[in-house]
## 1
Amino acid sequence: MSAILIALAAGGSWVHLGCTTLIAGRGATVDGSVLATHSNDGEANVDPRLVRVPARDHMPGTKRPVFYSPETYPRYVGYVRGVEAYHPQGGQRPWTPIGYIEEVPHTYAYLEQTYGALNEHGVGIGESTCSGRFAASARGHGGRALFSVDQLSQLAMERANASRTAVQIMGDLAVAHGFYGAGNSTEGSAESLMVIDATEAFIFHILPDDTGASAIWVAQRVPDDHVGVVANAFMVREVDLDDPVNFLGSRNMYSIAKAHGLWDGTGLLDFTAVFSDGEYLHKFYSGRRVWGAYHMLAPSAAMPVDYEEWRKSRPYPATTRPDRLVNVHDFALVMRSYYEGTPFDQTKGLAAGPWGTPDHAMANGGSHAMKGNWERTIGLWRTSDSHIVQARDGVPEAVRGVLWWGAHAAPTTVYVPFTSGLTDLPNATLGHYEWQDKSTLLWACRWIFNLVQLKYSRMILHVRDLQDAYHARAKSAVERVTALAASATDAVEIRQALDDMARDLAEDAVVQLRELSDMLMFKYGDGFIAGFDSQGKYVAKPDPYPDWWLNAVNFSSGPPDVPAVAEGDTGAAAAAHGGRHRQPQAQ
C-alpha cells in the first residue's frame, strides 16, 4: 500500500500507509514450499475484502479494460470483472476504464485483496510500496501512465502460470504502457512485489521512467536456501541482466541512469542506490523492520542496528540464509512482531503503559506539529489484512497454492487457509470498514485487537493460545484436503472439499474470535480478574497497576492521606479521622 502521507483535501485528515513483505525459497523451508507475505498497512479507508476472480474465456479481438486504482474502499465498482461483491450498490455507478490492452484467450482464476494474491496455478504475490527516483500520474489523472501495481498484479494472476512469467508480464506491460505509483511525489512512487510459484521466488522492483510514460524494473531471483525482506524500500543491489537465470529487467535502466548522472556506466548498476529515494517518514522506517525480520530468522548473521543512510550504507542484504528452516507459522510470528526481547521492544517502557501495549497511534492529535516518531513495527495497529502465500511442489494443482489470509492486524488475527483450486469464498472475507458486520473476519478480528489494548500483557496470552490452536487445526485441514486431492478422481468432489474447508475454517475463526472477545471482557473487565473458585463461586480480584508505572506517573504525588487529627481532639471525629490511610469502600 502507498507509504506516502496523503493529505485529504476535503477533510484535512492524514493517511499513513506501508507494507512489510517476506519471502523464502524452497530450500529455506521445512517442507520445501516457497513462501511470501504481505501486510496491507493502510488505515480505515482501504478495501480489506478478499474476493475470488473467476477464470474466463475471451473472444478474439476482446479488449481488456484497465481501471484507475484509488487504493481506498471500494477498490472497484462494476460488472466486467465477474465478481458479485464489486457490483454497484447504493447508488454506485460502474467505473469507466482509463485505457485498454489486448485481451488473451483465457484468463486464470485468482484470489484478490487490494492486489492479486494467489492464482489457480499457485503463483502468489506480496506487495510493498517504495520510494523511487521518478514519479508519474495515471491517465485521466494528470498523467500518461496506464498501470498501477494493483493492475499489474491482477494481470500477472490472470496470465501467468509461473513466477518468472509473472514478473516478465508485469515488466513488459509497464514499459509499454507506463507505470504510476500510489503517490505523485517520489515518496510512494515505486513498488516492490514478492512473486513466487512452487519452485522459484523473485523480488520485483518497479518505478516510473523519467518520461512518466514507461517504466524501469528489475527482478532478482531469491536463492533457494535464502529468505528475504522488503519493507517500503528497494533491496536489490547489483544487477546483472547478462545472467538471465538470476536477473530479469528493463535495459532502459542503464541509459536513464547515465543520462541523469546517477551511474557512470562502470561495473554493475546498484539498483537501490540509483533508483531508490531512500527511506521515508523517518530513519529506520524500513530498516528497523528489515533488521527485526532478519533478527528473528537469521540471528547469527548479527545484522547492524544502525547505519548512516539507506542507499549509501547498504545496511542489509536483499536475502540471507536463515539459521534454521522456516514454515508458515514462523513467518506469521515475524508478521506479528513488535521487536519483543530486543532493545526496540515496543511492549516495554512508559509509552507501552502499565499493561505493555505496543500499538501507538498517530501522535500530535493529527496536527503533526511536534517533532518525533514512534518505532515502525512489523505488527501494526493500522493493518487492514495480511497474508502468507504458500506454493508447494509435488502436490495436485488444486492444492498447490495456499493463501493463509488474516483479516485486520496480524498480531491478533488468525490465518485462514484458502487453496488455489477452490471455487467459492465464504462471505466472512467480505468485511469492510464502512459497515460493521459481525459475521465477517474483519470485524471479529478488529474487535479483539481493540479489546486487548485495555490490558495487553494479560489478554494477548489468550489470543496467542487461540492462534496456535487454530493454526494446528487449519494445518491439519490442509493436509486432509491435500491427501484427498492426491487420491480422489472426481474433480467435483475435490473442489467441493476445498470450498467446504474454506467455509468451515472461516466461520469457525469468527466464532472462536467472538467467544474469546466475550471471555476477555468477562475475565478482565473493569480492572479486575474474574473467574470462579473451586466451589463454583464467582470471584473478582483487583488487578492493580505495577509499581514501576505508578512511580513513573508520580502516583505518590497524588492526593495525600486523610490528615491526622490535632492533639487533644476527642470523640467520633478523632475515631473517624485518625490519620490512617483508608481503603476505598463500596459506593
Note: The chain has a mean pLDDT of 93.
## 2
Amino acid sequence: SVETKHTQNYASASLLLKRPNHSRSTNTTMATVTPTNAKYEAAAQRSGAPPAKAAASMMTAEKSTASLDDLGKKLGEPLPFIKVDSEQDLYALEAYRQDYASYRLGAMKGAKGERPPSEAKIYADLATANKALTDALAKVSELQQTTRDLEAIRAAYATRDENLDGRQREARSHLRDALYKRQDAKLRRVETAMRDVLGKAAKGHIEASTYHFTTGAPVKTDVLVARGVVKAPEHAAFEIIPKTAASSPIFVFTDETVNGLYGERFVDGFRRLGYDVTKIVVPDGEDAKTLDVFAELADKVLSIGIDKHSILISLGGGAVANVCGFIASTLHRGIGLIHFPTTLLAQCDASISHKQAVNAPHGKNLVGSYYAPLKIVVDPDVLVTLDDWLLPDGFGEIVKHALCQDTDVLLKMLDDHDGDLLDLDFLERAVRRTIELKCEVIDVDPKEKREAVVLIYGHELAHAIETVSHRPGSLCCLSHGQAVAIGCVVSARVSVALGCCDSSVVQRTIDLCEKYHLPTTVPPDQSIDAIMRALRKTKVYTTEGCQFALLERVGRLFNVDGEYHLPVDDAIIREATEATMAAPGTVILGAGSSGFLRRNKKPSRADLVEAADKNEPGAGWTLEGNAPHAC
C-alpha cells in the first residue's frame, strides 16, 4: 500500500540519518527514486540548489498554505526525490518525514516543534494583537478619566485652608493634632499587641505552601424610578427579574401593612409573567430586624426551597429591605436581591444601599453585610398611601442630605416648598435628588471612609438615642428618621463647639427639622449616661474614642487632610447632648415600632405612670410634680 511504502522509506531515511559517516562511494548500493514532477527540476535550475533541496522547499511552501485535506493528498504521493545518496537528499527526506509526522499527529506539529506560521496567520495574529492593544488603550483612557472624575469629586468636597476663616483653620489644626494623636495611640496599641504576639507566633516547625486568589469585582446596581410599577409590575417596560431566574423560586418579603395595601396585586403581577412566587409577611417596623426573625425567615425560605438563581424581593420600608437583604446575602452565600421601597425613608435612604443588617441586643445594625442588590425600583405613587406620621420619618434623611451635601438644589427645594407634605410631585423631586446625591458618594466611596461620610452625618448620636428609646419603659419610641433629626442637631452643636462652623448652623438645622415635623430635642426620659453607654456600642466608637462627621457650613462637611470622620472627646459630646435635651414634661410623639404616633394615640397620665413603674425606665424618671419626665 501507499502507507507501507512511505513507512519503509521513512525507516531507511532514519537509518541513514543515524550513521555518523555514511559512505559516499559510487559503489554504495542504495535505493533510487526517479523524479515524478518536472516543476521540481525547473525550480532547481532557477535557484541553483540541489534538486532534492529545491523540491523540499517547494513542498514546504505548498503545504504551509494547504488545507489538511490537501496536505493529506500531497503526503499520499510517492517521494519526488531523486537519489538518497547525499546530505542534501537526506535533508529533503527528513523535511518530508517531519511533514508526514505532523500530518499523522493531526495538528501540524512535528516531533521537533511547531512549523513556522503562514503569512496569513501572521497577519491574523497581528490584527488580533492590534485589537487587544486598542482595547487596552481605551481601558487606560477610561480609568484615567475615572481617576480625574474621582479627584474632581474629592476636590469638590474638601475645602482648602485658604478658604476657611481663622477660627476654622484653628479648628482644623486642633482636629489634625487630635486625629494624629488617635492614630499614634492606635498604632502604639497595635504594636504593643503585635510585639507580644510576634514573640510567640510563626516560630514553630510546621511549614505551609501559599496560594492566592482574588475576589470582589465591582458590582453595578441600577436604581430605577417609575410610577405605577408596584400596582402592575407586569406592565413594566424594563426587565425587573433576570431571565435567568425564570424557572427558579422567587420570594417576596413584605410587612403586615404593605401586604394589605399592595401585597397580592404585586405578587399576582409577577405570577402573570410566569414566575413562581412565594410571599412572606414579616412584622411591621424594627420588630422584623432581629436575629430571631432572621433565623426563622431564613429557615422558612430554605424549607420551601431555593436554588442559586432564586431572587428575594423586598416590598416595604427600610426594615423589610434590611432583613430581606441580609437573608439574600447569606443563603447559598448570596442569591439575587431586588428592593421595592414603599416608604419615603426607604426610597431616600434605607433601600438605596448595599448595606444589609439586622439589630442585635446591643444596638442597631450590628449584624450585617455589604451586599449589592441587582436592582432597586422606586415607585413614588405608593407614597400616597403612607400614614401622615411616616412622611416626617423619611424627611429626616432628606434634611440630612440638604444640611451636609447640597444647598444649591435640595436645600433650596426644601426651603421653597410651602405646600402639603403629601404633594406627590414635590416628593418625587426630593426622592430623585436624594438618590442622585447618595449614588454619587457611594460610587466613589462604597465603604464610607472619605466622601461618603456625609451619609452618616447625625447618625453617631442618632443610633444611640434610637436604641435607648426602644428600651422597655420608654414612652417615646423614636423612628429612625426622628432620631437622625435629633442627631443632626447634636452634631451641629459639636461642630460649633470645635470651631468648625458658625453658631447659626444650629438654628438653621432646628428650623429645617421643625418645618418638616421632626423632633429637635432628646426625649427627657433618656439620660446622657444611657446615651453614652449606647454610643460606645455603635460602629463610630473605637478604642481611642468616638468619631463624628462635622459641618464646615450648611451644605458642606469639615475635613482634615481629606479625612471626614474626625475625633471628638466624650466631654464635648456630653455637653452637646445635654444642650439638646428636652425640658422635663415635654411630650414628643414617637413614630418607632411602639411609639404613640404609630399606635395613633396620645399619651395619658396612666401611660406615663405605667411607663415610670417599669423595671427598666432607663433614666431620670420621677413622679414628683404634676408631670413626670416623659415624652
Note: The radius of gyration is 38 Å.
## 3
Amino acid sequence: RPSVRRFGARPPGAGHLQCPQGAMAQALMSRPGLMRKLLVPISVRQMSSAAQVAPRAPTAVTPALRSVKARTQADDLDEWAASFTKATVDLAKMDVHTISYQESAERLRTLLKTGLLRHTDLATRPERFFLAHRLLARHAPQLGPGFWVRFTVHYNLCAGTVLGLGNEEQVRALDAWQDEGLLGCFALTEKLAGVSSGLVVNTTAAYDPHTDTFTLHSPTRGAWKNWISQGLVADRSVVIADLQVDGKSHGPHAFLLCMRDQPGGAPAAGVLLEDMGRKTVGNDLDNAAIGFDTVVLPRSALLNRFSDVVDGEVVQKVQGMPIFHMIGQRLFTGRVAVAQAALEFRRGLFESTKAYADQKPCWAPSGQPVLSDIPQLRALFAENARGLDRLDRFVGKCEARLSDKLRAGELPDVSLVEAIAVAKVKAVEESIDITHRLQNDVGSYALMVGSGFEQKDFLTMCKFAEGDSRVLMQKMARDRLRRFEKREKDTDPAGWDEETKECAAPPSTPGTPFWSSNQIPAFDFRQFPAF
C-alpha cells in the first residue's frame, strides 16, 4: 500500500476539517503560512504554467494539414454533439420529484443502447466523453444531480475501471453491456470511510485455492459500501475489496460483480441492498448501502490486467504500477468532469436568472429600469462572466492534456495531476460561492420552484465527488512538503521559489491555535490573485 497515512481523527474544535495523522500533520499544523500558500495558492500561482500543453515531438503533419485535421475533428464533434443532444432532449420532461429509480435508470439504458457514446470512447475519443458530461450538466438547474451522477457512475467509474484494469476479454464484455443496456455502479466508499476519511477498505475478497474462487465479504457493518449511486438498480458493479491470499492482505483490488441475473431481477445471493433514503436533491437517483455476505466470485471476476493470483501467489504483472494507482485513474477523469459540470450548472443558473432579471421591471423616480440594472446584480453578472471565462480556459486545458494521455495510454504527470485537482477545487468552490451570492442578491425569485436555485445542492454533490475539496487541498499541501523532503531540502536555497522557502520555514510558535486562527483564510479563495 502507499505510505500515505490515512486521513483520520480531527483535533478538537476542527469541525469536519480533517488533517493527515502523524509527523506530516505536525509539519502542516506548525506552519500556517505554508498551509495558506499551499492548500490553494500553490497551484493558483502555477495554473498557467501547469496547464500549458506539453511540447510534442516533430511529426510529418504540416501546420496546414494539422489545421484541416483540427477543423474536421471539430465538425465531427459538433455533429456528434447534435446527435447526443437530440437523444437526451426528453430528459427535460422528467419529473424528478415523482419518477421512480427504475424509470430513471431505463432512460440511461435507452441512451446506452444508442451507442452514441461507447464505453471505449474514454480511451479512444475522450473529447466525446467529456462533452457528453457537459451536455448533460446543462439540464442540472432543472433536474438536479440525479441523472448526471447516474451517467458518470456508469461510464466513468464502473465501465471506465473495467476499461483501465480489465484484461482483453473483460474489456470486450463492455460491448455486450452496451447492446443489452446493462448498468453498472462503483462500490468503493464504506460506512466507516466517508469523503473526509481518505482510502479505507475493510471489505475483503479472500482467495480459495481449492475452488479457485474469491469470497467477497463485509466483516462488519462499518465495511458495508455506502452512498453507492445506482446501487439499487445496477446489473453490474465494480467492487473494491482487500485481496487476501492465505490470510495475508494484498491491499485494494477491483472485482467485477454480477449484481443480478437480469435487469430488474432480484439481487444475487449474499448481496444485501438498502436505500440510503430521501435527499435534498437528486431523488430520481438511487443511493444504496451494499453489504456482502460470503458472495462467491469466479476467478474471472478479478480485474487482472496489472495484478493477478497465480498458483496461490499474488503477481504484479507490471512492475512499479501499484494496483490502487490504476484504480485512482478514474479520479482524474472524474475530477475534470465534475469541474465542468459545476461550471455548466453555474452558467445555466446565471443565464436563466439574468433572463428573468432583464425583463423584471423595477420602480424608479424616472425611466423604467429592470432588475439587472441594479448595481450589485450588474456587477455580479460581470464578475461571473469573467470568472467563467477564466475557469473554462483552464479546465479546458486540463481536459486537452488529459485526453492526450488517455489516447496514448499514459499516466498523467505530476503537474497535470495537480492542475486537475486545482481545476476541480477551484471550479466547484468558486461556483458555490458566486451562486450563493446570486441567490441572496436576486430577491424572491430565488425562492421559486423552477428557478434552479432549489437544485443548488448539485454543487454540494460536486464538492464531495471525486475527492472532498478540503481533503484534496490538504493532499496537495502534503505532497508539496514531501517533494521538498525528498528532492529539494539539500539544494541551494538561493534557487528556491517562495513555496520551497515555506516548506523549509521553521515551525510557528508552539501552541499557536492553527485551526482557529487559520482555518478561514486558508480556504478563502477570493484573497488569492486570479490565474
Note: DSSP finds 19 helices and eleven strands in the chain.
